[in-house]
Specification:
The complex is a heterodimer.
Chain A (H helix, E strand, L loop, with lengths): L4 H8 L1 E3 L10 E20 L11 H7 L3 E9 L2 E7 L9 H19 L2 E7 L3 E9 L2 H11 L22 E6 L6 H12 L1 E8 L1 H4 L5 E7 L5 E6 L1 H25 L3 E5 L4 H9 L5 E3 L1
Parallel strand pairs in A: 4-5, 4-7, 7-8, 8-11
Antiparallel strand pairs in A: 1-12, 2-3, 5-6, 9-10
Helix pairs in contact in A: 3-4, 5-7
Chain B lengths: L14 H12 L2 E5 L3 H11 L2 H27 L10 E7 L10 H15 L5 E7 L4 E8 L17 H9 L9 E6 L19 E10 L5 E10 L5 E9 L7 E8 L4 E9 L4 E8 L9 E6 L5 E6 L6 H10 L3 E3 L14 E4 L9 E3 L9 E2 L3 E4 L18 E2 L9 E6 L5 E3 L3 E4 L13 H14 L7 E2 L3 E2 L7 E4 L6 E2 L2 E2 L4 E7 L2 E8 L3 H4 L20 H18 L5
Parallel strand pairs in B: 2-3, 2-5, 13-14, 13-15, 15-16, 16-22, 23-29
Antiparallel strand pairs in B: 3-4, 6-7, 7-10, 8-9, 8-11, 11-12, 17-19, 18-20, 20-21, 21-22, 24-27, 25-26, 25-28, 28-29
Helix pairs in contact in B: 1-3, 3-9, 6-7
The chains are: A alpha/beta, B alpha/beta.
């Protein structure tokens, strides 16, 4: 199991946040702009034929002599979609484990809150996934399926596409965003779901690689090679380029209104989850 | 090219590790990374310098290989190819005059040592000694080496020309490179003859004679002293047996003019005999000729034995009786073969089995001659000195053969009537057949015969450099101060005393240095200046090591070094 009981209880106290909340079709615990059968009063309107007489406010009728019916807010669920990158590049420095743990945490929070959860583990294609999971009872199966998800392949965020039902919900993408087309893929997710959260898993070892001397670097996903003399100047340039890429992604997410969080691969999971609780994050306390 | 330490050429194998290290360095380690994009951006700037990097790496390899090769060559100690070095024959005159106290030998040694040390390494030198017998000392030595220890010059001659001939015949000399330097105090035709010091005054003992009167404790010592100085010199001398100060016998030499030679004598009672040492004082320019030695036998009574088949001649007995105080043993009859231990044997009318002897009559090997007339006698011979034999008459005799090894003492028309050699005296007639016993000269004749035959004959003094063979067969030679004897042929070295022993017989020998040619020290000739040795160029290894250091520094300093 990915989590112990205490951590699960911690997760159960959290809730997924979305800037532009578009609830789902199923009843849930989230307020909806629609009227429904919840206990939360919303408005009055004039009675029309066919309205349920149980909704007539008889006190108003006694005071004004006109029939009005009470309207209540409808509560719907949130369809959360968690896409976790399990490509080859995620196999370095514990990034994949951290990504799976984050995806599991977010998914479990959704299930515990009564939201609908769809998830997907992807590389250059969808490798594993599930749709329409609801309730804490599905949590164990979700966690086990996530744990058993295969890994490998190139990173291609375009292979991660939310199911139709989740298009109006919350999309959480956990990846190292090695794909140069990551920003395009994130952008294309917006019109569908509206809310996209980018969790960028990075490693200290990537920022400070313990490399020295003449090297032939091989890309783990593409097999592409490049000869590098890992001296101080080259390493400095490498760090500059890497940080620039990360900052560019963060700036893109900021422009697109997507919450972006950079999570260290070696950081304790609790700290990583806590990072999502910060303002502008994907989680909040109930 | 040749090398001092060719084993170090194996260090060239170190080039292989250098090349291997270079190739290993060039071989890039494959590292799989999660993302190459940032690396690509970082490597972009480097890629522009790839061409320089290739040149730099090849240049680095070349410089490292060249540096390693230079170090290996330097360690092997290469020698310069080029002109062959010079072979120097350093000839030293080791005649006694070179040992003069004016320091000419020291100057020669110091000058030669400095010269040898200053020679470049490609030059060689060899030492030759010009003594009585020119000879080489050791083999060829490399330039820069120190001079070996050379013997003190004390030989009686310095054959410089012989040494130069020996140098010319040296098969080890490199053809066309041989040059000679001679250190001598006499003129020579060598390439170089450095000028030596100036001689001082010199007195020398030219001869020593020490003789004992027969049957007497008195020893007459005579030394001849010569002045080779350029001015008159007065000196004293002394003689002594043994080493005690009380034994000194003064010899008043007095003043000697230039070139003058004077004999000084002294008498001394020395019954025990021994080795007599004569010295001049004070010392002068040459110490070697200021001493002389002589061997003096001890005083002892002669032992005479008479062998007669019949009754001993009364005349002979009477004559010997007169000598009895000088004889250790009176006359007596001994059998042939039992005569061992006596000094003189007298065979009266019988045949001696062996000499030495005084034989009164010979066996009848020749027919007898009646009344041979005495024609002459050897008045200058020690046996007949001062005797008048004009009245000698011989009734019958058997004249002796004329032996070239014997001296005829009494001659007659029929042949020799008496002859003497070193160890025997023979009469050709019986005493009873002549009037010799009746003459006044007879007792003197017998005395002279006994004295002459029994006289102790010390070995004739030897001169330094002489080969001495005192005995036939094997014998030992004990030199003064030596703890073990020398066996076999012996050549006199330093002046002094040596003892020869064979069986139980010991014979002393005096060795002297009497050589006017060496004692007459002269000013050394004006020598030519020594050539300045060629300046030793820096050895090649220095340049090689410097080149290696420069290459390594250049490799380090070139930009782009990993």
């Amino acid at each position: 199991m990915l989590f112990d009981d205490s951590f699960l209880r911690t997760l159960e106290s959290l809730v997924l946040l979305a800037k532009r909340l578009r609830t789902g079709e199923r009843a849930g615990e989230r307020p909806s702009p629609r009227t429904g059968a919840s206990v939360e009063f919303r408005d009055y309107r004039s009675y029309v034929e066919g309205d349920d007489l149980r909704t007539v406010d008889w006190n108003v009728y006694a005071r004004h002599g006109q029939l009005h019916v009470k309207q209540f807010s409808a509560e719907r669920d949130l369809h959360a979609w968690v896409a976790v990158d399990v490509s080859e590049s995620m196999g370095f420095f514990g990034k994949r484990d951290q990504a799976l743990a984050l995806a599991a945490a977010v998914g479990y929070v959704a299930l515990a809150r009564g939201d609908t959860l769809s998830w997907e583990a992807f590389g250059e294609k969808k490798l594993a996934g599930g749709e329409g999971l609801r309730g804490k009872g599905a949590g164990i199966g979700f966690l086990r399926a996530l744990e058993a998800a295969p890994a490998g392949g190139k990173t291609d965020l375009r292979a991660a596409s939310p199911p139709p039902g989740a298009s109006r919900g919350l999309a959480v993408v956990v990846s190292d965003f090695c794909d140069t087309r990551s920003r395009e893929a994130l952008h294309t997710m917006r019109p569908r779901g509206g809310n996209v959260v980018a969790l960028h898993v990075v490693a200290d070892e990537e920022l400070k690689p313990a490399l020295e001397g003449p090297l032939r670097l091989v890309d783990a996903e593409t097999g592409r090679e490049v000869d590098v003399d890992a001296d101080e100047r080259t390493l400095a340039r490498y760090r500059e380029a890497l940080v620039a890429r990360w900052d560019a992604l963060e700036a893109f997410c900021a422009r697109e209104g997507m919450p972006y969080r950079r999570v260290l691969a070696r950081a304790p999971l609790l700290d990583a989850v806590a990072a999502l609780l910060r303002p502008g994050g994907a989680l909040a306390r109930r | 090219m040749s090398f001092d330490r060719p084993l170090f050429l194996w260090a060239f194998l170190a080039l292989a590790p250098v090349v291997a290290a270079f190739l290993m360095k060039r071989r890039r380690m494959r590292v799989v990374v999660s993302d190459l994009e940032a690396w690509l951006a970082a490597a972009e700037a480097k890629r522009a310098k790839a061409g320089w990097r290739t040149i730099r790496d090849a240049g680095s390899l070349a410089m490292n290989l060249a540096a390693c090769a230079a170090l290996a060559l330097a360690a092997a100690g290469p020698r310069r190819a080029g002109p062959q070095g010079t072979d120097w024959a350093l000839v030293f005159d080791v005649s006694a005059s070179m040992g003069a106290r004016d320091g000419r030998w020291r100057k020669a040694i110091e000058g030669a040592d400095a010269f040898a040390r200053a020679l470049p390494s490609r030059d060689r030198f060899r030492i030759y000694l010009a003594g009585e017998f020119p000879r080489a000392v050791g083999g060829w030595r490399g330039g820069g080496e120190a001079l070996p220890v050379l013997p003190v010059p004390e030989e009686r001659a310095g054959d410089v020309d012989g040494a130069l001939a020996l140098v010319a015949l040296d098969p080890g000399a490199r053809p066309g490179t041989l040059r000679t330097v001679v250190w001598t105090d006499r003129a020579c035709a060598a390439d170089f003859a450095p000028r030596l010091g100036k001689a001082g005054n010199n007195l020398a003992i030219e001869a020593i004679e020490a003789s004992r009167e027969w049957n007497s404790a008195k020893v007459e010592v005579t030394a001849r002293v010569a002045n080779y100085a350029s001015a008159a010199v007065g000196t004293m001398g002394w003689a002594r047996f043994g080493s005690g100060a009380d034994d000194l016998i003064p010899l008043d030499v007095g003043d000697l003019a230039t070139g003058e030679s004077k004999a000084v004598s002294a008498s001394v009672l020395a019954p025990a005999g021994g080795m007599l040492e004569v010295n001049l004082t004070p010392g002068d320019a040459l110490a070697l000729d200021d001493s002389g030695f002589a061997a003096v036998p001890p005083l002892r009574r002669a032992r005479v034995l008479v062998e007669a088949p019949e009754a001993k001649s009364p005349f002979l007995s009477s004559a010997l009786a007169v000598l009895s105080p000088a004889l250790e043993e009176g006359s007596g009859i001994v059998e042939p073969g039992k005569a061992k231990g006596a000094d003189v044997f007298i065979f009266d009318r019988c045949t001696p089995s062996a000499f030495p002897c005084l034989s009164i009559a010979l066996p009848e090997v020749r027919p007898a001659v009646d009344a041979p007339a005495v024609t002459s006698w050897a008045t200058d011979h020690p046996i007949l000195r001062g005797l008048d034999l004009s009245r000698l008459r011989v009734a019958r005799a058997r004249p002796l053969p004329r032996d070239p090894g014997a001296t005829v003492l009494i001659d007659s028309a029929a042949g020799p009537l008496a002859a003497a050699s070193a160890d025997h005296v023979v009469l050709a007639f019986a005493l009873e057949d002549s009037n010799l016993p009746l003459l006044a000269a007879f007792p003197l004749f017998v005395r002279n015969c006994v004295e002459e035959l029994s006289r102790e004959r010390p070995l004739p003094p030897a001169l330094t450099g002489d080969w001495v063979t005192p005995f036939a067969g094997s014998y030992e030679v004990w030199e003064a101060g030596s703890t073990s004897p020398h066996a076999g042929a012996w050549r006199a070295g330093r002046p002094g005393v040596v003892i020869f022993r064979q069986g139980g017989v010991s014979r002393p020998l005096a060795v002297n240095f009497f050589d006017p040619a060496e004692s007459a020290l002269v000013d050394p000739p004006a020598g030519r200046e020594l050539p300045a040795p060629e300046r030793e160029p820096s050895p090649p290894w220095v340049f090689l090591a410097a080149a290696a250091a420069l290459l390594l520094a250049l490799d380090w300093a070139l930009p782009g070094r990993r």
